[in-house]
């Protein structure tokens, strides 16, 4: 020590100091590595322990994304229609050359960012995982509608296309928000409770009571989240048991039948149903949603039920003396009065209106779709499906506009053959929305479609900015404007703009009213259809108009197949219709009949197998009628 104090800096002391520092750095790195490896292993074990089977909603999301990825290398989203006069595709090639990309969950172009933990709605807030399930349910609903549509040469009178109406505003608000949410997966901590999704996995295993100003909204959020997670086909059936009193408190109006939801008259009946297995050899995974328990016997049974084998969760509307009570504020944040220092989590909170909107979509997405029915002669009334701009022959009498808007396929605006750059997602939506509605739209209608669920007063300025940006683009390129305002309604100017969607509608209107040369008229519809409306865009309002355009060309394929000169030509047309909509069951019925008549058992089996696999990817199955026809 005396020597070191006299001469502290020597070769020996420097070597010792450097060696000690090196060992300390090595120990720090080694310990950090070990701790990270242990954390990874523990996370992997937890994940393997609670990995669930995909729900129909999750299967929809994964199937859509997978099919879209597989379709990317194929290039164009549509295939040129076969020429019936030249044989068309072979009988065994019903779906082999399909390049139609399946619909995908809302995503695509982002115009604004949103928090990665959830979605703010006009009627509450929901975590990202629940929002993704809602988006998948909406996609599944549209696939069901596509599946049951029966192509017809003319429109039925009255309300034949009511299934093309927009989804409720809450659902469209979720769809619009999903495109700006982060793709990071949501996680949850706490004890696992069987089938419940991540937002509900941290419910106390012994049951939880909900109090505070946000209690009812939180209970509605729990109900919706659990209904979205129910898997109908599983060895351990899942169900939500509640009482009529609770349901009346949460939803003043009757919501109808929902898969997995059991409503009883009293708490005693609810406990009896919860304790009894639905099948002799199958126990159920149950979520029990009840009022605050005052009866001592029911309280004891509820506590025992909540502390059972980990396959059930209990949620009470009120204080829970035998377990945990959470105070919920209107924004969904919870507070445990007995654990004031614990970090409060956030629950999904929904008001009655938002809940009714979401349950409507859940019910339609999960309910079995009716099989397509054969057409009757009385229904073949020649009425055009949609209001269209002036006929093509009238417009073509004037000079052809040099501004061309393509909406069938990837949207594009061109002037004199050159594409114009449009960066705003909202600008494309304004162009498409007004092209679909020749009668025009008010500012409120545009705002409600592009920014659903948001007060028009808060986003009207964004609409005016979007319109101004479009005017600058078209005036700079073509010294003109394509949007005009009359009587507080915005319109596209047809004399300055050519739109491929208008050509398709003109062709369909002409074919539906033609009395001579109908084959050429319906072939013109097929030729005008170059792809799905706004392909690749996931706007919240686009599904209905997109399906309406798809049905126009399906009608053409169906009618031409009926009047085809020989079975081979009819089969080629049906095959092309299947490529446009591979979910349509009526077209598969027709293909089965034609393949059976041709005696091509191999192609028939291949067709049914492919259709079954495509439906299974989104959680659906072929109808018994189609299975019977194939057999």
UniProtKB/TrEMBL annotation:
The keyword Transmembrane applies. Residues 499-631 form the Bacterial transcriptional activator domain. SMART domains: BTAD (SM01043). Residues 76-95, 366-399 are annotated as: Disordered. InterPro entries: AfsR-DnrI-RedD_regulator (IPR051677), BTAD (IPR005158), TPR-like_helical_dom_sf (IPR011990), WH-like_DNA-bd_sf (IPR036388). It comes from the Bacteria. The chain crosses the membrane at residues 20-39. Keywords: Membrane, Transmembrane, Transmembrane helix. The keyword Endoplasmic reticulum does not apply. Coiled coil: none annotated. This is Bacterial transcriptional activator domain-containing protein.
């Amino acid at each position: 020590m005396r020597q070191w104090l006299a001469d502290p800096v020597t070769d020996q002391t420097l070597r010792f100091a450097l060696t000690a520092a090196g060992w300390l750095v090595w120990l720090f790195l080694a310990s950090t590595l070990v701790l990270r490896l242990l954390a990874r292993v523990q996370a992997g074990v937890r994940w393997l322990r609670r990995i669930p089977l995909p729900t129909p909603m999750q299967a929809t999301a994964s199937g859509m994304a997978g099919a879209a990825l597989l379709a990317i290398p194929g290039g164009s989203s549509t295939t040129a229609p076969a020429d019936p006069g030249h044989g068309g595709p072979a009988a065994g090639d019903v779906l082999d050359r399909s390049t139609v990309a399946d619909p995908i969950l809302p995503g695509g172009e982002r115009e604004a960012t949103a928090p990665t933990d959830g979605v703010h709605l006009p009627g509450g807030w929901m975590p990202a995982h629940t929002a993704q399930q809602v988006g998948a349910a909406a996609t599944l609903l549209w696939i069901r509608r596509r599946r049951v549509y029966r192509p017809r040469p003319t429109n039925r009178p009255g309300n034949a296309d009511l299934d093309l109406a927009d989804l409720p505003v809450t659902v469209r608000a979720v769809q619009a928000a999903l495109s700006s949410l982060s793709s990071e997966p949501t996680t949850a901590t706490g004890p696992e409770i069987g089938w419940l999704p991540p937002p509900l996995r941290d419910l106390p295993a012994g049951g939880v009571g909900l109090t505070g100003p946000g209690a009812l909204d939180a209970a509605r959020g729990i109900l919706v989240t659990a209904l979205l997670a129910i898997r109908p086909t599983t060895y351990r059936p899942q169900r939500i048991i509640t009482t009529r009193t609770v349901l009346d408190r949460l939803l003043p109006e009757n919501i109808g039948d929902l898969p997995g939801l059991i409503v009883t008259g009293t708490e005693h009946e609810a406990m009896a149903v919860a304790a009894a297995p639905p099948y002799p050899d199958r126990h159920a995974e149950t979520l029990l949603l009840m009022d605050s328990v005052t009866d001592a016997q029911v309280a004891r049974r509820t506590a025992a039920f909540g502390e059972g084998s980990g396959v059930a969760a209990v949620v009470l509307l009120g204080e829970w003396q035998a377990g945990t009570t959470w105070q919920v504020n209107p924004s969904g944040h919870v507070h445990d009065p007995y654990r004031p220092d614990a970090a409060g989590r956030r629950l999904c909170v929904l008001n009655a209106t938002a809940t009714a909107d979401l349950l409507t979509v859940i019910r339609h997405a999960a309910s079995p779709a009716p099989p397509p029915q054969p057409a009757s002669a009385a229904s073949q009334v020649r009425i055009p499906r949609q209001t269209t701009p002036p006929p093509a022959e009238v417009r073509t009498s004037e000079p052809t506009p040099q501004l061309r808007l393509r909406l069938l396929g990837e949207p594009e605006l061109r002037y004199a053959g050159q594409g114009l750059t449009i960066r705003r997602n909202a600008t494309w939506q304004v162009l498409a929305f007004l092209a679909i509605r020749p009668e025009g739209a008010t500012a409120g209608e545009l705002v409600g479609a592009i920014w659903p669920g948001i007060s028009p007063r808060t986003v009207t300025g964004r609409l005016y900015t979007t319109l101004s940006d479009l005017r600058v683009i078209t005036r700079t390129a073509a010294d003109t404007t394509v949007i005009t305002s009359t009587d507080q309604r915005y319109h596209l100017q047809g004399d300055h703009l050519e739109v491929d969607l208008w050509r398709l509608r003109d062709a369909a209107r002409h074919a539906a009213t033609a009395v001579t040369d109908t084959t050429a008229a319906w072939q013109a519809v097929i030729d005008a259809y170059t792809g799905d409306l706004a392909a690749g865009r996931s706007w919240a309002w686009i599904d209905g108009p997109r399906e309406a355009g798809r049905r126009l060309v399906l009608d053409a394929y169906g009618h031409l197949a009926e009047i085809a000169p020989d079975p081979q030509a009819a089969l080629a047309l049906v095959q092309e219709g299947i490529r446009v909509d591979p979910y349509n069951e009526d077209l598969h019925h027709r293909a089965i009949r034609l393949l059976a008549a041709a005696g091509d058992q191999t192609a028939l089996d291949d067709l049914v197998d492919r259709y079954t696999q495509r439906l299974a990817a989104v959680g659906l199955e072929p109808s018994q009628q189609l299975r019977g026809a194939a057999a």
